[in-house]
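Service request form, structural biology core

Requester: graduate student, group of Dr. S.
Request type: structure prediction, single chain
Budget code: on file
Notes: please return the result as structure tokens.

Sequence provided:
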Amino acid sequence: MAGKHMEGLLFAIVSCLVVIFGPKGVDKAKQAWRRAKEQAQRIAEEEQARRWAEEQAKRDARDEQRAQQEQARRLAEEAQRKAAGGQDWDSWWARAREEQARQQEQPRQRESNEEARRRATEEQARWTEEQAQWWAEEQLRRHAQDEQARQQEQARRHAEKEQAQRRTEEEQARQRAENERARQERERHQSERSHTVSGNIQRYFDIFELPYSASFDDVKKQYRIMIKLNHPDKHSTDDDVRDYANKRTQEINDAFSTLKKYFNKA
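Core staff response, request fulfilled:
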């Protein structure tokens, strides 16, 4: 009975393990169920051994009682024979009563010993049941602690991962902001430089009577045309015109040299 009760208790505890831990706790629940089944089997074997001992004690008691009755019968027959032979009846009867009391005392002593053994067996079974129950509760508590520690570790790792991701995103955002500021700064400097250069270079394009978007080939063609028209040798008859042609030619050459540098052709 104790083994069946223990098996039912352990089955309930193992079922709780499966409900609490789900599929992950099936293996642990199977191991706990096997250990519980072995424990219940040991308890059942102890219970069977105890019952066998009790039955054996009962048989021994019956055999002892039959032996006492047989001995009492023999003593009575011997008493009758001795009485017929003229021996002392009182002394014989006293010895017979002492022997009978001794024989009656032996079953009581045996029953007392058997009762002590039975109580010891019950105490052992109760202690084994309590130990198994404590072990199951301890296993359940340990599994709960392990699961809680695992969940805490997962939460900690998740928090660290989110924190690292957040730091990475902040670093990327900061880098993008710095890149954007650098780009804007470059654009601003380039715009200022473009405005400055365009203001200076436009004057040289105006000398060739070309737009700012003209190419270097256009500048080179216009340079050849204008240098021919303004060459001093073509205006040698008039000194004033010759001086103007010299200044104009110098201006065209300076403009062409500057635009060559502008177009990286120098």
